[in-house]
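Please fill in the sequence for the structure shown.

STRUCTURE ENCODING:
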């Protein structure tokens, strides 16, 4: 049976009406009722850590900062994350209840068209908004993952000296993308006087070589250990690194003092004049 227009109008008027100004916050909670905008009542403006992602509050009245990557978010203050970021929960006990950190929705480092590596595509986009724009798309993602670069020696080997029978070690730290191949060589001279590089450990039973990743990202640390030291182990040692982009090397010197001569020089006889 069709409803009468009067009955339909009566039912419509009895429906609960939403309060003005109520809406949904990005985190899923309700925002307070918005009153007429009065800028003079807004909190004093603060300088945003990332000025290019400043915004207005939920009512579109007062200026506020959006959280940059790594900033705290959530909680009673309702700090919102910037574009492309999400508020991820902290590890239990790492911060106030209900708070989190702004993280990029797309994880992983990227290589920018400027040849620089960025920790995330969000960091790249933030940089693109901050630098002068030569033309649209002047700074964009070139590829996923960090940019490739030739090896760079971060910590060169330090020269050492010790006596025969003791031990000596050299180390060097290298950074590169893709990961470099790091080797140790001893620099010698041929009878004709030309430089000769001998790969280590070779047939030296008293020399060991080790390479492992770290301690920082895209880094490798290499060691050469000589134990026990012999007089013939004295010389220049080269830390050589290479990848598809290029190569680098650095040198350290090992000086070996004969133990008998060291003792004689350290403990003079009773008839020696000081």
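FILLED IN BY: designer on duty
SEQUENCE:
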């Amino acid at each position: 049976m069709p409803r009468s227009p009067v009955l339909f109008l009566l039912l419509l008027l009895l429906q609960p009406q939403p309060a003005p100004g109520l809406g949904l916050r990005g985190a899923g909670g309700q925002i307070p009722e918005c009153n007429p905008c009065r800028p003079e009542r807004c909190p004093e403006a603060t300088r945003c850590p990332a000025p290019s992602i400043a915004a207005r509050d939920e009512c579109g009245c007062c200026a506020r900062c959006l959280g940059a990557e790594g900033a705290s978010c959530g909680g009673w203050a309702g700090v919102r994350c910037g574009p492309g970021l999400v508020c991820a929960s902290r590890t239990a006990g790492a911060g106030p209840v209900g708070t989190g950190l702004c993280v990029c929705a797309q994880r992983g480092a990227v290589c920018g068209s400027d040849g620089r590596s960025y920790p995330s595509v969000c960091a790249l986009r933030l940089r693109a908004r901050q630098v002068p724009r030569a033309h649209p798309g002047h700074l964009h993602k070139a590829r996923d993952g960090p940019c490739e670069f030739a090896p760079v020696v971060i910590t060169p080997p330090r020269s050492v000296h010790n006596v025969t029978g003791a031990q000596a070690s050299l180390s060097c730290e290298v950074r590169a993308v893709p990961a470099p191949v790091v080797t140790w060589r001893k620099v010698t001279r041929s009878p004709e006087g030309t430089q000769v590089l001998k790969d280590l450990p070779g047939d030296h039973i008293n020399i060991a070589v080790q390479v492992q990743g770290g301690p920082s990202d895209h880094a490798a640390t290499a060691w050469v250990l000589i134990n026990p030291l012999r007089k013939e182990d004295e010389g220049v040692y080269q830390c050589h690194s290479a990848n598809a982009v290029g190569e680098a090397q650095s040198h350290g010197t090992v000086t070996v003092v004969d133990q008998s001569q060291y003792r004689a020089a350290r403990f003079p006889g009773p008839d020696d004049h000081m």
